[in-house]
User: Fold this.
Amino acid sequence: MKLILITRPTYFVEEDKIITTLFDEGLDYLHLRKPDTAPVYAERLLTLIPEKYRKRIVVHGHFYLKEEYNLKGIHLNHRNPIAPDNYTGQISTSCHSLEEVKEKKNNFDYLFLSPVFDSISKQGYAAEYTPEQIRQAAKDGIIDKRVIALGGIDEDNILQVKDYGFGGAAILGGLWNKFDLDHDYNYQNLIEHFRKLKRLAD
Assistant:
């Protein structure tokens, strides 16, 4: 099962080193999501990440970066709902209901479905689906390898995601909360935690 990491919403020192190390450790894709930030910061981050890993990065905005840095693709959401004219590369999107997945699945390379569990990074953002609903959706062919689970995923439920039949798990708070920007002098705990998630996902 694929492991996708979504960036923290703001930039921070050492971010490029952490991302590069995670790619070294087997991260499948990184979703670069930095709402309300200037593109110059994204450009700076991308230039610091080795070229061989840029083709595994998907951007959630400033779509011109895709061509400029030879990235994997673009991700549409409520902030940026429309692909650029004549865009032909990989494209993914976010869904917040099984109906939406059903409706959009054939038009995208893959989709995020959220929140599958109670969110770790967003307080009060609770799971939308019961295990029964998810199992039924998998049985009905709505959830398959092109649907990525998002929301509250960590080591205690990632095997459940795999068992449900999702094609991957998108992680945000489950990994970044292992790294305290103000107090941690290295990111070893975060890397160790990623290794654990990777073993469970494989």
